[in-house]
UniProtKB/TrEMBL annotation:
Keywords: Hydrolase. It catalyses: a beta-lactam + H2O = a substituted beta-amino acid. Signal peptide: none annotated. It is an enzyme of class 3 (hydrolase). This is beta-lactamase. Residues 83-340 form the Beta-lactamase class A catalytic domain. One of its GO terms (biological process) is beta-lactam antibiotic catabolic process. InterPro entries: Beta-lactam/transpept-like (IPR012338), Beta-lactam_cat (IPR045155), Beta-lactam_class-A (IPR000871). PANTHER family: BETA-LACTAMASE (PTHR35333), BETA-LACTAMASE-TYPE TRANSPEPTIDASE FOLD CONTAINING PROTEIN (PTHR35333:SF3). Belongs to the class-A beta-lactamase family. Pfam families: Beta-lactamase2.
Length: 381
C-alpha cells in the first residue's frame, strides 16, 4: 500500500494556536472546465517519512538557545516578520511575533491541497481523475501550465498533476483550478474551520487577491499578460493605499504559530489519512521554489518538505515573503516551521537570510539543545 501511494505521488508531473499541548465513498463530481463568475471584490477579512499516531505533547521544554536565536533573528529584522517552530515529536513550541497574521501569498496553496486530499479520503475525488484547463482558467504571475493551455486552447491532465504543479512549482492556474474543483474558497474555509486550524484565513483565489492588492478590478484579459501594464498605469497613491489595506488586514493572513501547528498535526497524521498524508509530504518534498530560503539552511542528512509564498513589490517594498514546512533531522525528529515576512523594504537577500537563520537555528539547537546560541554561520544566498 505504501509503495502504491509513493508510486502515485511520483506519477503526478504543502489550528489550534500552539500552546495546547474512512468515510464511505460517495459520488464523485465530474472535473469539468467550468469557471465560476469572477466578482471583483475582496472579502474581509522529496520526503518519504513514517506517519505515526499522535504523540504526547510537551515531552521536554523548548531549547533556550533556540528561543534566544529565533527571538534575536526576528527582532533584528528590518520590517514586519514572525516565526514559529513546533517540535512534532517533543511537543515544545518556540515563536517570535508568531501570533500576528501575515500575508500568506502562495503558502495558502497548502489549504487548497489539504481540502483536496480530504475529499480524496472521502472518496469524492481521485488523483487520476481527468481535468481540463482552458483559457478562462488562466490566472496571472507564475503559471507555467499556461503555455500548454495557450498551445492548443485547452489542456487536459489529471488532478494529481495539478496538485504536483501547485505545490512544487507554485503554479497559480493549477492551484485555482483545484480550488474550483473542491468547491471554491468556501470549501477551503470550511476545512480550516472544521479542523480547528486557528488563525488562518483563506482569500478569494489568486486573481481577485492579486488584483485587489494592486488596486485593480480583475479582468480576464489580464491573464494573457496585461496585468502588469494595467498596474503600472495606476496612480502611485492608489497602489500604495491598496497595498496598505492589504498589509493591515490581509484576506489571506495567517499567524506563523497557527501554520506551524497545522503542519505538525499534518505530520502526526491528524488531518488526513495515512496515504494522503504521505502524498502531501512527498509532494512538498519535491518543491523547487525558494532554493535560497529554508532549503539553503539544511545540513547534510536533514530533509525538508515545504511551501513558499511571495507577494507583490511596490517601490522596494514587499508584502509577503515566506517559507513554511517540515524539517526532519537525521535522527528522525521533526520540526514544523513557519517564517513569514509581512511588510518590509529589506533586500531579497536579507529576507532570505532571516528565513535561513531561523531554520539553521532549528538544525543546530532543536535536536541537541546546547546551552548557548551563537555562531549560526549563515552565508548570503
Amino acid at each position: 500500500m505504501i509503495a502504491a501511494c509513493a508510486a502515485l505521488a511520483s506519477c503526478v508531473p504543502e489550528a489550534r494556536p500552539s500552546g495546547t499541548a474512512n468515510a464511505q465513498p460517495g459520488p464523485r463530481p465530474t472535473a469539468t472546465a467550468a469557471v465560476p463568475a469572477v466578482v471583483p471584490v475582496m472579502p474581509p477579512a522529496v520526503v518519504s517519512m513514517p506517519v505515526p499516531p499522535p504523540t504526547p505533547r510537551a515531552i521536554r521544554p523548548a531549547p533556550q538557545a533556540l528561543i534566544a536565536a529565533v527571538e534575536e533573528a526576528v527582532r533584528g529584522f528590518d520590517g514586519l516578520a514572525g516565526a514559529a517552530v513546533r517540535a512534532v515529536d517533543d511537543g515544545w513550541t518556540v515563536e517570535a511575533n508568531g501570533r500576528r497574521p501575515m500575508p500568506q501569498q502562495s503558502v495558502s496553496k497548502l489549504w487548497v491541497a489539504l481540502t483536496l486530499m480530504e475529499q480524496r479520503d472521502q472518496g469524492r475525488v481521485r488523483l487520476d481523475d481527468p481535468i481540463t484547463i482552458t483559457r478562462g482558467d488562466l490566472t496571472l504571475f507564475h503559471q507555467p501550465i499556461a503555455y500548454l493551455v495557450a498551445k492548443n486552447g485547452a489542456y487536459t491532465t489529471t488532478v494529481g498533476d495539478l496538485l504536483n504543479r501547485a505545490l512544487t512549482q507554485s503554479d497559480n492556474t493549477a492551484n485555482d483550478r483545484l480550488l474550483t474543483l473542491v468547491g471554491g474558497p468556501g470549501a477551503v474555509r470550511d476545512f480550516i474551520a472544521n479542523k480547528r486550524l486557528g488563525e488562518i484565513r483563506f482569500g478569494p483565489g489568486e486573481r481577485l487577491l492579486q488584483a485587489g492588492t494592486a488596486g485593480l478590478t480583475w479582468r480576464q484579459e489580464y491573464s494573457l499578460g496585461g496585468f502588469s501594464a494595467a498596474r503600472a498605469k495606476l496612480d502611485p497613491a492608489v497602489r500604495k493605499a491598496a497595498l496598505d489595506r492589504y498589509v493591515d488586514n490581509p484576506p489571506d493572513g495567517a499567524a506563523p504559530l497557527a501554520i506551524a501547528d497545522a503542519l505538525a498535526r499534518l505530520a502526526r497524521g491528524e488531518l488526513l489519512s495515512e496515504s494522503s498524508t504521505r502524498i502531501m509530504l512527498d509532494t512538498m518534498g519535491r518543491t523547487v521554489t525558494g532554493r535560497a530560503r529554508l532549503r539553503a539552511a539544511m545540513p547534510v542528512g536533514w530533509k525538508l518538505a515545504h511551501k513558499t509564498g511571495t507577494g507583490q513589490d511596490l517601490g522596494g517594498r514587499n508584502a509577503g515573503f515566506n517559507d513554511v514546512g517540515l524539517l526532519t533531522a537525521p535522527d528522525g525528529r521533526r520540526y514544523a516551521i513557519a517564517v513569514m515576512i509581512g511588510d518590509t523594504r529589506a533586500s531579497t537577500t536579507a529576507r532570505q537570510q532571516l528565513i535561513q537563520t531561523v531554520a539553521r537555528a532549528v538544525t543546530l539547537y532543536g535536536p541537541t539543545s546546547p546551552a548557548t546560541a551563537g555562531g549560526l554561520g549563515i552565508a548570503a544566498n
